[in-house]
Each structure stands twice: as C-alpha cells, then as structure tokens.
Amino acid sequence: MASVPAPELGAVLQLLRDGRYRTRAELARTAGLSRSTIAARIDELLRIGLVAPVGGAESTGGRPAAMFALAPGSRVVAGVDLGATHARVAVTDLAGRELAGELELLRISDGPDVVLDHVAALLTQLVADLGRPLGDVVGVGVGLPGPVDHRTGRPTKPPIMPGWDGTDVVGALRHRLGRVAVLVDNDVNLMALGEHATALPELDHLLYVKVATGVGSGIVADGRIHRGAQGSAGDLGHIAVPGADAVPCTCGNTGCLEAIAGGAAVAARLTEQGVPARSTNDVVDLVRQGDLRAAAAVREAGRSIGAVLAGCVSLLNPSAVVVGGSMSRAGEHLIAGIREVVYSRSLPLATQHLRVVTSIAGPRAGVLGGAHAAIEHAFAEPALLVGDDAVTAPGSAAATA
Amino acid sequence: MASVPAPELGAVLQLLRDGRYRTRAELARTAGLSRSTIAARIDELLRIGLVAPVGGAESTGGRPAAMFALAPGSRVVAGVDLGATHARVAVTDLAGRELAGELELLRISDGPDVVLDHVAALLTQLVADLGRPLGDVVGVGVGLPGPVDHRTGRPTKPPIMPGWDGTDVVGALRHRLGRVAVLVDNDVNLMALGEHATALPELDHLLYVKVATGVGSGIVADGRIHRGAQGSAGDLGHIAVPGADAVPCTCGNTGCLEAIAGGAAVAARLTEQGVPARSTNDVVDLVRQGDLRAAAAVREAGRSIGAVLAGCVSLLNPSAVVVGGSMSRAGEHLIAGIREVVYSRSLPLATQHLRVVTSIAGPRAGVLGGAHAAIEHAFAEPALLVGDDAVTAPGSAAATA
User: Fold this and answer.
1) How many helices (H) and strands (E) does chain A have?
2) What is the pLDDT of residue B386?
3) pLDDT digit string, tens, across residues B53-70
4) Is the CB of A349 less than 8 angstroms away from the CB of B235?
5) Residue B370: which CATH number?
6) The predicted structure's pLDDT at residue B83
7) Residue A59: pLDDT band by 50, 70, 90 thresholds?
8) Could you say which of A100, A104, A121, B210 is the most buried, measured as most Cβ atoms within 10 Å of its Cβ?
9) Nearest Cβ partner for A311 among B222, B239, B318
10) Count of pairs with CB atoms under 8 A, one residue in A, one in B
11) CATH number of the domain within which B63 lies
C-alpha cells in the first residue's frame, strides 16, 4: 500500500534515536554508508520533519559541519491502560515524553464496543487538544487486564473481561482511529516495559510486580518482555505461598498468593477483624489514616508476596524487583514486608546486588509501557514514521517484489 | 592475527547450516547477494572443504545446475561436562552429531591443573583416534558444576570446586589445546541447551531440571539460555517448598528444595528408615532392585520438586519441563511425583500444553550442549571455521583497521 522507504532510512533513524547530535560524516561512518547516501537520506528526513538541523559542529577551521538530530516531536504515539474500572490514555513523543494524559473511570465489563469507543474518543480529543492531526499518531500500545495472544492482539478467556474473549482489538481500534499500528498486550507486561523504559533502562533484567485486587508480574529479561510459550508468563497469583495456611482460593486450590495477599483478600481479612474494608483502595486509605491493624495486614501481605518472590528471584536472578499496583500506595509497609522475606530467603548470589523498590513510574507505568512498545515498533518499521511521504529507495520495488 | 574472512562467507555458511542442498542461484537470491559474489564465495568454501558439491538440481532442459551443501564433518567441536566426580568429553561434527565420546572418573576437587590436564589429554586422544589433527577443533564448550561468570568463563565462588574460584578456564584450556575458542558455562545451562538442541529444537521455552545430589535448573527462553543479571538464574535448590516441613538446610534456611528432595537428602532419609543409602546412585540402585521404600521416597521427592516447579511453570510458562540428572534414572517414580503436583498446582493456561518429560539426551545432555554452544559460536564468528585458510575480503583490512 504505502511505498517502501529506503532501508537505510531505518538505520539512520535508529542511530539518531538516542537524541545525540551528529554530522553527516559521523552518520556515514557509524552506519557504514557512503557520504552521498547519507546526504540524500538526511535531506529526505529533513523534508518530512523527522530530523532537524541543530547548529554546527566545532571545527578546527573553515565552515563548521552541519549537525542533525531526531525531531522527537515530529510524530506521536499513544499508550492505553485498561483496568477493571478505568481507562488511562497518554500521548507521548518519539522519545517517550508524555505530552498529554487522561484518566477516565469506566467498566471493562461494559464490553469492547463501549470501552473502545471511549478510548478512541479520549485519544482523538487528546491529540486534537495538542493541536495535531490524528495522522501524527504512528502507533498505539494497549494493555488489557487479562491474558492476551500477543501475536493477534486478542484477549484469550480473560476472567474479568466479559464479552472480550477473542475480540479483534487491533481491528476495532483501527476502525475507529484509521491506519495506525496497534499493539495489544497484557497490562502488567506493559507496566514492566514502562518501568524499564522510563525509570530503569540500565537494568536488563527486572521483575515488575503489580499488587492490587489480584497479584501479577511482568518479566523483563535481556531488555525484552518474557512472555513464555502461551503468553501467560508472570502469572504469580496462584503460586502457593511457602509456609502459608491452606486458605481456599477461587481457583480451587489452597494457599494461592492472591487468596492470601491480594487486595481483596486483605480487605476481607480486615473486615473479619472488625475493620470494614471492601477494596484495595479502602485498605490503602485505612493505612494512610494511620490504622495500625491495616498497616500490619499490608505488611503481612508483603511477607507472603516476598515468600513467593524469593523463589522467583532465585529462578530469574533479576537486578530489581519493582512493586507497583494500587496496594503499593500504602507506603513502606508493603515493600518492607516483601524485602524482609526476599532478602532472607533468596540465594546470596541472587540478592547481593538486588534492588527491591516501589515503582517509580507509578500508575503511569502501563501507559508509558504502551507508548514505548509503539515507539519500538515504529522504529522497527520505519514506513510507519515516514507514512504517506514515504521515500522510495531506488530499485526497492524490485527488491521486495 | 588471522586474516579477515569476507562478511558474505558467514551469511552463506549460516544459510547452509540446515543441511539442505542449494544451487548458486538459490543462495544468491536468499542471501540477497550477486551471482558473481556467491560464485566466488562458494569456490573459496569448496577449496577449504567447508562446503561440498552434492550433485545437480533437476532442470527443465540443458545442463542441471550444480548444488552445494555444508560439509558438517569438515570441522569438529567438543563438549566437556565436568561433575563432582566425573569428566565427560564428546567430539561432534558441525551438525552436532557425536563422533566420539568418553567418560572418565575424576574429582573436580583435585583442582583446575589436574582436571584440565586430564580433559585436554582426553580430548586430544579422542581427536587423534578419529584420525584428525587437533587444528580441526574449532571450539570447545565446557560445563562446570558451579556458578560461572559467562562473559569471562571464570567460576565464581563455586561451593563444590575448591581451588577453582576465579580460574581462567579459557586461558588454561587454550594453553593446553592451542588457538581454539573456549566457552565456559554452568553445567545445567549446557544441559538445558543440549536437550533443546538435540531433542526438543521445536520448543522455544523449556525448563531443564537436574535432580542429583542437589537440584538445579537451566532455562531456555525464546530459544536462548536465560542467565539473569549475575548468571545465577535457574538456581532452584534453595527455594522453599510450599507445604513442606521446616527441614534445616546447609544454607541456614529451612524447607529448601535441596534439603528435602536432593539425592543426598533422600539417601539420608532412607538410611534413617533403616534402608542404608549413601548417595543418589545408591537410591537409584535400590529403586531398580524393587525396594518399595526407596521408590516411595523418590516419588515423594518428586512431589516436593513438583511443588516448586508448579510456581516456576506459572512464572515462566515453558512448553516443557525436562527432568534429568542421576536421580531421573530411578524410572517413572520421580517424574510421576513431579507431574502429580505440577499439573494440579500450576495455572490451567500454563499447563494446558505443558509436557513434563524425562530427559531424552540423558547423561549426554551436558556434552551435547557444550558442543552446540561451540557450534553456535563458530557460525557467529566464521573466522573460526575458516581458520588459517582465511579468505580475505577485498578491502576488509581497511574496513576493520
């Protein structure tokens, strides 16, 4: 459909992604391309706005050489994070900087038509408010609160998403937003990616744990999401807690992490103890109001989570365990309980350099991860960035025919 | 030192690795190279024996086009698997087929000088017995029974390898064997790789579990070994067994998998019960002789291993759990106990397509994994394959200067 951009365009754009300024000569040397090829590509990228001139290089004499850098604001992407009762949307530039964001309360159980209408409207409004055409959006990364077949972007038997099983989310969003790349993934995977991309890019291995009504995790291994054979990797909620009582779980087993330390379980236990709480948010509010029983219950939940994470740390040997999700807003109690058990129970070699930290990206981890996934995809498929202004390489039609 | 082979040589060799016969025209098309470049590279590869002519292609008329294939026997690699009390060495061709192998009993605690002298002598003899010069060996993959810094190949504080901490194993073997690529890794990682490469190449995600005196695992994720941040990934031995008694472990914690289900622990428990056993091998012999208490003890160990693996399966979502190590020779008892708990305790999404199988590569998994690692490395660095007959690309000296 779109014409094919010259293959070197992608290489030049990848080089410029780090934001550094470079001369044509530097680009030619690093990319292993001729000066004339680089000059032609830079001209094309300047014309379509993806690259900008940024002043001259210092020179030992004569005219300073022109320098260029990626223009990260020339295109935008969006991240969408759908939870049981909310939709969060963010628009970022190609460097992942958030330009606009919005949180709306809506029920995922209203089904894909209603929810995706809302999401598309919200995104369209955000882009319009930025004074940009919708065509500037080169990709959307969407996180769903359930298992997703990553290749097709379809949810597969998601327990808390009635009406969504097998839905073509990619097609549905394209129908509403036009020709845009849509990537769909499990929400916790995108949170892990968002945390990695924005807060801890120097760590190749991290385990992001979301503690909310349930408990789940996303694994970053060698800088990429580890999804496993069926895409269900990271599913911690029904791992048995070592040393725990045989608390029955909705899954039919006993002693599952979620049945012991999920927000719903902690709220129920507090209620039994005469401290009424209906949700994770109630538990967090109680802790923030200084309720000692709630603080103790959250710390105990942290210990149970730590008992499972200790095994995960021995198995995966990450550089960091990042704790996010709504329960992490209960202050230091949750992470203190986790640290207590992880550091005493994992192998010294695995914990020696291990950091156990509260999420830095916070509630925006998911949308930032979605945006990051869309950016990665766009740079891997530069035709998305170049769009209708596609620059055709000489002979490329023949090469790809 | 060696001259630089033309970059297209590596591409052509990679293409031919699958063993299929191809014409020059097919190679040119698939590699995206000109017919004349391919013709020149094929002539060079024929001259140094890495490629062989294999008869003509069918043709609709005229002279059939010549076809070529990799000559897998033109070079060899070696795999070395060192255990607490043994050294196993195998020589394979470039397709990973074992040409010669040997098992020798020796103590790793004799230290690197004694052990590596033995290994080098064993390998030299095997290659000589094949009637080949040592120079035909393009790589050696070595597995050590302890933590290894994969980048340097040095063991790091290995508990059962006195005298080996920080040893330059790569340098020591090169000193004995001449200029050859040496790759050193943890033994269980190489077993996982060997099982994957030789028995289950179609599975991108597998967890190989070695059950012997201790318990360890190697993780294959997306077809590659997952090592983690410090290279200690897969270390299952000191994960707490859910539901187990607080059995004290040598590590200072209680309820560790190794203290409950390792071969040494099972032997000790049987001895307490009046069935004398000093080692995993004694336990296996008892089971094979039909001792019911030994069979029950092995099955119970399997259940404990299964309780830990259930969590690993939920976390990693592999396609297969492969059980190897000396305890796996005790027949179906071990794997039956593992299956019992893994299938009832892991998430349905993670177990639906999960296979839990006894190692197919068996005791040779480690040497085959070592050989495979050496082959991968050689194809990634084709200068190793081309050796002193290196074919210099026009202008390549300048390009790499």
Assistant:
1) 15, 15
2) 84
3) 987 655 566 667 889 999
4) yes
5) 3.30.420.40
6) 92
7) low
8) B210
9) B239
10) 146
11) 1.10.10.10
* Helix or strand run (H / E) with residue A87: strand A86-93
A148 and chain B in contact, CB less than 8 A:
no
Number of domains in chain B: 3
Q: Which long-range contacts (CB under 8 A, 24 or more apart) does A96-102 make?
A: A96/A197, A96/A198, A96/A368, A96/A371, A96/A372, A96/A375, A97/A72, A98/A364, A98/A367, A98/A368, A98/A371, A99/A73, A99/A130, A100/A126, A100/A127, A100/A129, A100/A130, A101/A126, A101/A364, A101/A367, A102/A126
Chain length of chain B: 401
**Gap between the Cα atoms of A181 and A383, Å rounded:** 11
Lowest mean pLDDT among A21-25, A53-57, A74-78, A227-231: A53-57
Share of chain A above pLDDT 70, in %: 93
- What is the pLDDT at residue B88? 97
Specify whether B211 is located in the same domain as B354: yes
Lowest mean pLDDT segment, chosen from B52-66, B68-82, B366-380: B52-66
Interface test with A, best of B317, B341, B343, B396 (most A CBs within 10 A): B317
Interface of B with A in 15-34 (CB under 8 A): 32
Q: Which of residues 275-314 of B touch A (CB under 8 A)?
A: 307-308, 310-312, 314
In a domain, B166, yes or no: yes
Separation of alpha carbons B110 and B46, rounded Å: 45
The answer to whether B233 contacts A316, with C-beta atoms less than 8 Å apart, is yes
Say yes or no: B222 contacts chain A, CB-CB below 8 A. Answer: yes
A313 CA to chain B: closest CA distance, Å? Answer: 8
Residues of A in contact with B244 (CB under 8 A): 242
Record: contact A243-B241, CB cut-off 8 A: no
Write the ipTM. Answer: 0.88
pLDDT of residue A399: 31
Shared domain for B218 and B338, answered yes or no, is yes
**Section A112-135 average pLDDT:** 97
β-sheet bridge partners, residue B143: B81, B185
Please tell me the distance from the alpha carbon of residue B264 to that of residue B260, in angstroms, as a whole number. Answer: 9
Structure tokens at A392: 């055709």
Judge if A154 and A214 occupy the same domain.
no
User: Higher pLDDT residue, A250 or A338?
Assistant: A338
Residue A157: its pLDDT value, please? 86
Tell me the backbone φ, ψ of residue A308, rounded to 5 degrees: -75, -40
Verify that B15 and B101 share a domain, yes or no.
Answer: no
CB contact under 8 A, B228 and A318: yes
R_g over Cα of chain A: 24
Report if residue A251 sits inside a domain: yes
Q: Does residue A155 share a domain with residue A89?
A: yes
CB–CB contact A240 B314 (8 Å): no
Question: Does residue A401 sit within a domain?
Answer: no
Tell whether B400 is covered by a domain: no
Residues 83-122 of chain B with CB under 8 A from chain A are: none
pLDDT at position A5 is 60
Interface contact B311-A147, CB threshold 8 A: no
B1 or A42, which is more confident: A42
pLDDT of residue A77: 98
Domain span including residue B136: 75-192+364-380
Residue of B34, B217, B230 to mutate, interface with A, max A Cβ within 10 Å: B230
Domain shared by B271 and B337, yes or no: yes
What's chain A's average pLDDT? 90
Determine what percent of chain B falls in helix, strand and coil, rounding each to the nearest 5. Answer: 45, 20, 35
The two beta strands, A181-186 and A137-144, are parallel
Of the candidates B117, B73, B81, the one whose C-alpha atom is nearest the C-alpha of residue B101 is B81
Q: Give the one of A219, A240, A308 whose C-beta lies nearest to B307's C-beta.
A: A240
Q: Are residues A183 and A220 in the same domain?
A: no
Enumerate the residues of chain B whose CB falls inside 8 A of the CB of residue A253: 344-345
pTM of the shown model = 0.89
Show residues of chain A in contact with B239, CB under 8 Å.
Answer: 310-311, 314-315
**pLDDT class for B390, splitting at 50, 70, 90?**
very low
Query: In terms of CA atoms, which chain B residue is nearest residue A257?
Result: B311
